[in-house]
Amino acid sequence: MPRSTLYTSAAVALFVVVWAAVDGGQSPASGAVPPTPRPSAPLTPLAFPVTPGPTGPLPRVLPPGIPAPSPKPGPAPKPAPKRTAVAKPAKDPRKVLADLMEPIDAGTSASVSVAVLDMSDGRTARYGVRAGRTYDTASIVKVDVLAALLLRAQDHKRRLTAQEKTYASAMIRVSDNDSTDALWQIIGGAAGLEAANRRLGLTETEAGAAGLWGLTRTTAKDQLTLLSAVFGDHPALDKASKAYLRGLMGEISPGQDWGVSAAGHTDGLKNGWLPRSATGLWDINSIGRVTVDGHPCLLAVLSKGHTSQQAGIEVVEKAARAAVTALGLKSAD
Question: How confident is the model over 278-316, as pLDDT tens digits?
Fold first, then answer.
């Protein structure tokens, strides 16, 4: 056999072997039909839980020695909105005073009325002030009598006489009744007092009849009006008259300096006390100006029906302290 034919036969045989290996052992020349592929077995679920991996782009892994790039700064966070403080509503001084007066009222059979005015901010509180309820003034009317005398002097463009000053000093400083009788006549009695009160703004005060000035009837509200005419800017009394009245009210004799003075430093004071012959019970009153925690306050406490003068004084002083406390001020102990 020639060498070229031998090489050709070997090449053909090698091709057949290679094709048989690729085609699963079936030669295309055999004419056999390829076997039908068997279906694959279903996948068996894994017997252990698979934790899902992180979503998003995979982190970059840099070769050793190459520093990671600095992250780009993001937008600055927005500042949290400021919370506006909501002020708590202030307590109603009248409600506070009513709460403070409840145990005081419960401890006495007497009737008590109190009114207070903070001159620095105009706040007020009142308790027991009812329409139509009036109290005997007793000696607190002496401030009203002196105010009426000063108005008369102003009208006549004159100063008080030496005698009038003597009466006025004794009437206010030591509560002398004889001096009050004399000045009651000078001002024109009940009619003169009521004429003066109309000018001073008192609307709920009725002068005592038949010369009984101590039985003048008034209210705590009207007494605050009278004090405002003396210590405030009411135009009825001029500057000199106010200064004169304030000076005497600031010189109350020892032993008569009780009452609203229990609430703070006393700038002016006048008290009244009167045993009623018909009942044997006491009227105890106190009016004036006191300074509490730096606040000038006008105070009026009126009461009636006490079993003794001392019992009445104690009730009046408790009421005075309660009144300034109701305004949020720290009263004197």
Answer: 999 999 999 999 999 999 999 999 999 999 999 999 999
- Comparing C-alpha atoms, which of 231, 217, 214, 327 is closest to residue 271? 214
Whether the CB-CB separation of 164 and 149 falls below 8 Å is answered with yes
Dump pLDDT digits (tens) for 98-130.
999 999 999 999 999 999 999 999 999 999 987
Helix axes 177-187, 189-200, angle to 10 degrees: 80
pTM over 0.85? The answer is no
Label residue 74 exposed, middle or buried (CB < 10 Å: 0-12, 13-18, 19+). Answer: exposed
